[in-house]
Amino acid sequence: MLDRLFFELVEDLDNVASENVGADSLSKMAEKFGLTHASYLGVNIPLAKQDVYILTTYTNEWVHQYVSKDYVKIDPVIQLGLRGIMPLDWKDLRDKNETTRNFFGESREFGLGRQGLTIPMRGAHGEIAMFSLNVDIPDRRWESEKRKLIRDFSVLAYHFHNRVLEQYGVHDEDVKLSSKEIEVLKWSAQGKANQDIADILRISERTVRFHLECARAKLNTINTTQAVARAIRLGLI
Q: Starting from the edge strand earliest in sequence, which strands make up the sheet with 115-122, in order?
């Protein structure tokens, strides 16, 4: 279930003028969630002059080191995040080979935490984006923390991405959802599984899937998480 902290951050983002959505917004997210760092990378952002749009709370020293050594070529998070759609746990990537072990080890020397999570996104306008968060906690604790972070930031990341788009005059189009589509999205936002929603609404699970698919299509999103995020963004749920 999405908790009060999640909705506080959504409200915070909504209250920031679109032109001011930047590293300060990331810092506020990091502070409220107890993260070490947070960052956003967007490629092919509509109407943006730069090919790659980056916002981060990383230190200037690490950014300089990353750029000067052209680490983009060996960073597995970038390589996989630009091609995939599933959340990436850095722990699964850092011991891939000696090069990645050295890369992640060096990042810790520059203040990054031991654990990291990246949420890839595919936008409705052909853009690709990644939202990454970083925290310095042991592996055992990370396994439990990661579930909550994936739940919350799968939506927050998409919400943040839409605020970035607004900086360039890219706004959401009006979307009309049926009452049933709104209902199933509301229950999905509460973490309910399709069968649970079916039981609550006294309809079949197949009907729930149908309404979710219709909502995703109308909202131009590729999964239910993004549909929930956009519906929240548009004030539909």
A: 52-56, 37-43, 128-135, 115-122, 88-89
